[in-house]
Specification:
The chain is of the alpha/beta class and 218 residues long. The chain has eight helices and eight strands. The mean pLDDT is 96. The structure holds pyridoxal-5'-phosphate.
Length: 218
């Protein structure tokens, strides 16, 4: 068994039944994605639109592609025809452009609203107040389906803090899920997905635990 196949098997063994695994393959070459594909993986996450589009061209067509990164509106047209779920919608301008490009592609695009739950300033996402202010506007975007929420916890070893951040998001999710018909809560990465699953994650986004550490060349 290759390293990726065994790492994938190890991660799968620790997932709660029913939780979807998005294999985060950003910066990794298609050969490695192919190995995960051969081990049955069908959901892949990328954080750059053009990289995702190139990989989608090269890989089998039954893959579900997840855009997990910050979305630039001028790149939406490159993924509108095929993206399965856009996790990081953090401003209304993105909803507007997703709707426009989805109409052109003659489809509905599924997305999640990203909520700012971390202490850090750098993470993207709506505050709770901003999110609740945008909910009444969603029906205007007829070719966009908001399926739920996404969040990233603080990058800290303090597990209690991470848990509290996830619990806050779960509570917000539960407040609106029925009225909004939400079924997706995307929380949890390699370092914190066990906590996320205990806080109601339906999707976990796992990269380095499957594909190994990423090298960012400057
Ligand atoms: C990179 C990334 C992940 C995966 O991170 P790992 O720590 O490698 O599992 C998950 N979510 C988002 C939004 C990311 O950018």
């Amino acid at each position: 068994m290759t390293q990726i196949k065994s790492a994938l098997a190890t991660v799968r063994d620790t997932l709660i039944e029913g939780v979807a695994l998005v294999a985060v393959s950003k910066t990794k070459p298609v050969e490695l994605l192919q190995e995960a594909y051969e081990a049955g993986q069908r959901d892949f996450g990328e954080n750059k639109v053009q990289e995702m589009a190139l990989k989608a061209e090269a890989m089998p067509k039954d893959i579900r592609w997840h855009m997990i990164g910050h979305v630039q509106t001028n790149k939406i047209k490159y993924m509108a025809s095929f993206v399965h779920l856009v996790h990081g919608v953090d401003r209304e301008k993105v909803l507007k452009e997703l709707d426009k490009q989805a109409k052109k592609a003659n489809r509905t695009i599924n997305c999640l609203l990203q909520v700012h739950i971390a202490q850090e300033e750098t993470k993207f996402g709506w505050s709770v107040d901003e999110l609740e202010a945008v909910l009444p506007n969603l029906s205007a975007y007829s070719n966009v389906k908001v399926c739920g929420l996404m969040g990233m916890a603080s990058n800290t070893s303090d597990k209690e803090q991470v848990r509290n951040e996830f619990l806050g998001l779960q509570s917000l999710f539960n407040t609106h899920a029925e009225a909004q018909r939400w079924d997706t809560l995307s929380i949890g990465m390699s370092g914190d997905y066990s906590i996320a699953m205990a806080c109601g994650a339906t999707h976990v986004r796992i990269g380095s635990a499957i594909f190994g550490a990423r090298n960012y060349t400057p």
